[in-house]
Design a protein that fits this description.
Oligomer: heterodimer
Order of helices and strands of chain B: EHEHHEEHHEEHHHEHHEHHEHEH
Number of domains of chain A: 3
Helix content of chain B: 40-55%
CATH class of the largest domain in chain A: Alpha Beta
Radius of gyration of chain A: 21 Å
Strand order of the largest sheet of chain B: 2-1-3-5
Shape of chain B: globular
Structural class of chain A: alpha/beta
Radius of gyration of chain B: 20 Å
Number of strands of chain B: 10
CATH topology of the largest domain in chain B: Rossmann fold
Strand content of chain B: 5-15%
Largest sheet of chain B: 4 strands, parallel
Number of helices of chain B: 14
Strand order of the largest sheet of chain A: 2-1-3-4
Strand content of chain A: 5-15%
CATH class of the largest domain in chain B: Alpha Beta
Shape of chain A: globular
Chain lengths: 369, 318
């Protein structure tokens, strides 16, 4: 078996780590490029959401590279993601490829099914061994998220532009070979030392922005034009609402991001009183929380036609009015160009900076340009 | 206490209006239904709604605006789930919140939650909670609900006898059309029966001598059974019905062709379309046409396509 999986941010690192542990042959699909997207757009349904298109492209490129088994997560709705795997199988088979598909449905869809799928992915291993593999692999993935969170927050303060990105990449390389729990703990310390060694100017007045929205667009740098690095370089300190392990993990506490599902739902309640699938409710809840914490602005990213986040987008203007918090919603699809996104972001940052100046010096009756 | 309640003639109106009517009247409310969709409805809706929202929700907003000055409260139920293990579209889950977000001058929004996933007890608790807006007598609330259910059963029977929801709500008689061709129209009721947004598709087809069958005319049990042939159980109830009807027609060939009506940017439909088209291709038994509608739909373009489809079906029969 030569298994493969779609890209989503650092997911490839986590997956190859897990496959190494279970001893399954695998192929990491080529990194997502414009060609991947074109392949996806050619075969995917016209107004399906962008993640489906990109992941179909990933799968096709991996099949061309010699993979024979596609691994995909399932779901129980109401977001479209839960039916992705079936559509991918249908579309890619119609495109003339031959392969097996393993769909990992969440335990919520039936424990037996879940365990049987896991056994397929780790042949010859007992449930206990599988559990340990998942536990340790997941622990490692969590460290990767911690590193990312650190980089997002402190990139804006670095003295020499680009240092944090370089250090972050090195930190990931330090983490990669760690296998046992001890090694992971040790690598974690080293990795953080590397990140902390970056020279920072904490007196610099940096804007504070929250990033919310649909998880795939937030996590996959190809799709969001590496927006986080760009914002960091523009001197914006970031906090993000979704991290990979928070999203995969069963915990409702979200240890990386630090705000539990319950708090999020509570914060969203006056505006959105029910979960709507995907990140609809978290997007609204986080905006309210960020507003209360005194953030300068909130950036909202989601793919075109994403149902839950369209609901969030409809509601954000209300929150923006109530808390006097600027928000910018960017809809991303295969037609979106980087220049357009950057222009709007620049304008947004200018607006936030001006707003902060006004707050500091009191309201000036004259427009200062 | 609320006296007049506004019910927008959009979205789930086409599915549950008789039930809602009997229920609300049983609670002692007076009902005002918005008039059928017009250009003005769509304009009002699109100017208020987020750009990305789908056409049916924009139309829904238009109806809310129309009712604005006529009623004390708007009836916008949150239909989370109508059966175990399934949801409706996410937009329905957030519909009351969407309604509140559009225009601060709207009257208050009544949003009873219908969620079958939480079990019978929770369901009735939510129902009694909602009923408190009208009366404190639990007995009256439950009786009104029962009246709603029986009205819905009558409605369902009418649909299965071949009436469209609009005809059934208007108490029309069953007419036998003697067309020489029969087309199945699959899709969401709010797209198929809102004659303005689909440019009068059903009436036009009947004028051309085509008999029309729709998803609603097939018994629920058949739909459920046919949809079970999918590779994975669909977690959207209404889309499951659409899939069920198309699979049903593809199998028993009781129609000569199928028109699948979907609205642009509809999330569930974007995936269903793939399943339906590939199944139709695999079986090769009946022609299937997908007709995508949006607020810019031009009449000429659509008529040309449907005409060509009908002509093709006629040639096929010869």
């Amino acid at each position: 078996m030569r298994a493969t999986f779609p890209h989503m941010g650092k997911l490839d690192m986590v997956m190859s780590d897990l496959f190494d542990r279970t001893g399954i042959g695998y192929i990491v699909p080529p990194r997502t490029t414009t060609k991947t997207l074109q392949l996806g757009v050619r075969y995917a349904p016209e107004f399906a959401c962008l993640p489906l298109k990109v992941t179909i492209g990933n799968f096709i490129e991996a099949l061309e590279a010699g993979a024979d088994t596609l691994l995909m997560a399932g779901g129980v709705g109401p977001c479209r993601f839960g039916y992705y795997a079936q559509i991918q199988e249908c579309v890619i088979k119609e495109a003339g490829y031959d392969f097996d598909m393993i769909i990992l449905e969440p335990p919520g869809a039936g424990y037996r099914l879940f365990i049987n799928t896991l056994k397929k992915l780790a042949p010859g291993k007992s449930i206990l061994e599988i559990w340990q593999i998942i536990k340790i692999g997941f622990g490692k993935a969590r460290v990767l998220d911690e590193l990312e969170k650190y980089a997002l927050k402190y990139r804006a303060y670095e003295v020499k532009r680009g240092d944090t990105t370089k250090a972050y990449k090195r930190a990931l390389e330090i983490m990669r070979p760690a296998i046992t729990a001890d090694e992971i703990a040790q690598a974690r310390e080293e990795a953080f030392l590397v990140l902390e060694a970056v020279e920072k100017d904490m007196q610099r007045p940096c804007l504070k922005m929250g990033i919310i929205g649909e998880f795939y667009v937030l996590l996959e740098p190809f799709v969001n034009f590496d927006i986080e690095e760009y914002l960091g370089n523009m001197g914006v300190s970031l906090e993000r609402s979704v991290y990979l392990t928070d999203w995969i993990g069963p915990s409702k506490e979200n240890p990386i991001m630090g705000i539990s599902d319950k708090e999020v739902a509570q914060a969203a309640k006056p505006y959105l009183n029910h979960f709507v699938g995907g990140e609809g409710l978290p997007s609204v809840g986080h905006t309210v929380i960020y507003a209360k914490e005194g953030f300068d602005g909130v950036l909202h990213l989601f793919p075109f036609t994403c149902m839950p986040d369209i609901i969030a987008k409809s509601i954000l203007p209300q929150i923006s009015r109530d808390f006097d918090l600027p928000t910018l919603s960017l809809v991303i699809d295969e037609q979106t160009g980087k220049a357009g996104v950057i222009t709007r972001l620049e304008a947004f940052i200018d607006l936030l900076a001006n707003k902060r100046k006004q707050k500091e010096f009191g309201k000036s009756p004259v427009l200062v340009g | 206490m609320c006296a007049t309640i506004g019910v927008p003639q959009a979205l789930l109106y086409y599915k549950y209006y008789p039930q809602w009517e009997a229920f609300l009247k049983g609670l002692g409310a007076e009902i005002v239904v918005s008039s059928a969709t017009t250009k003005r409805t769509i304009n009002a809706g699109t100017s208020l709604a987020e750009n990305e929202l789908c056409l049916p929700v924009k139309v829904f907003f238009g109806h809310l605006v129309e009712l604005r000055n006529q009623v004390d409260a708007l009836f916008v139920p949150r239909v989370v789930s109508v059966e175990n293990g399934a949801y409706t579209c996410p937009k329905f889950l957030g519909l009351p919140d969407l309604a509140r977000s559009i225009d601060s001058s709207l009257p208050s929004v009544l949003d009873p939650t219908f969620n079958r996933r939480l079990g019978r007890k929770k369901f009735y608790e939510a129902l009694l909670d909602f009923g408190k807006h009208f009366t404190n007598k639990k007995y009256r609330i439950l009786r009104a609900w029962m009246m709603g259910l029986s009205a819905q059963r009558v409605f369902q029977r009418k649909l299965e006898s071949g009436l469209t929801p609009v005809e059934a709500i208007a108490n029309a008689e069953v007419q036998t059309y003697k067309g020489n061709l029969k087309i199945g129209i699959a899709g969401h009721p709010y797209n198929i029966y809102d004659s303005y947004i689909n440019l009068n598709l059903i009436k036009r087809l009947r004028e051309w001598g085509v008999d029309v069958a729709t998803t609603e005319m097939i018994p629920q049990r058949t739909l459920e059974h046919e949809a079970s042939y999918l590779p994975k159980r669909l977690f959207w109830s209404y889309e499951k019905e659409v899939v069920g009807s198309v699979f049903h027609w593809l199998r028993n060939k009781s129609v000569d062709g199928i028109i699948y009506v979907l609205s642009f940017a509809c999330g569930p439909d974007s995936l269903i379309q793939v399943l339906l088209e590939s199944e139709a291709k695999r079986r090769g038994s009946l022609p299937l046409m997908s007709l995508v509608i949006d607020e810019h739909s031009g009449e000429a373009g659509m008529i040309t396509r449907v005409e060509a489809f009908v002509d093709m079906l006629r040639w096929r029969k010869v």
